[in-house]
Specification:
This protein is α+β, with helices and mostly antiparallel strands. The protein has helices at residues 3-8, 13-19, 77-82, and strands at residues 27-28, 47-48, 62-65, 73-76. The model has no long low-confidence stretch (mean pLDDT 75).
Length: 103
C-alpha cells in the first residue's frame, strides 16, 4: 500500500499525525553497494537532519509557492495527495566542501 492510499483511509490521519510529530534529528544512510542502476529507490535515499521536526497540524498545513513565480499557489496535504504522480529523472546535488579545501 502506498502512503497516498494510506492517507486516503479515514482512520489514517492519527497515524500520519504521529509520523509528523517532533522527533530528534536523524542521520540515516544506505550502503551504496546496494544500489543498482542510475535510479536510487525512494526508500534508499539518505536522510540528514539538523533540527528536530516541528509539530504540525495536517488539517491546517499548507504548501505555498510564491515569490518569483508567474502565479502564486497554495496547496493543502489533501490537495497534494490528489495530484497525479509524475516520475522524472533528476540529479540531487548536495553542497559540500569545495574540492581541495582543508576540512
Amino acid at each position: 500500500m502506498t502512503r497516498r492510499k494510506l492517507l486516503l483511509i479515514s482512520g489514517a490521519w492519527p497515524l500520519a499525525r504521529r509520523a509528523f510529530a517532533a522527533s530528534e534529528p536523524r542521520n540515516i544512510s544506505f550502503p551504496l553497494g546496494g544500489i543498482t542502476g542510475s535510479i536510487t529507490p525512494a526508500d534508499a535515499f539518505f536522510v540528514r537532519e539538523h533540527f528536530a521536526e516541528p509539530e504540525i497540524s495536517l488539517e491546517s498545513w499548507r504548501l505555498r509557492v510564491e515569490g518569483r513565480v508567474a502565479r502564486r499557489l497554495e496547496l493543502s496535504l489533501p490537495d497534494l495527495i490528489e495530484l497525479p504522480v509524475r516520475r522524472i529523472e533528476a540529479v540531487l546535488s548536495v553542497p559540500a566542501t569545495e574540492p581541495g579545501a582543508q576540512r
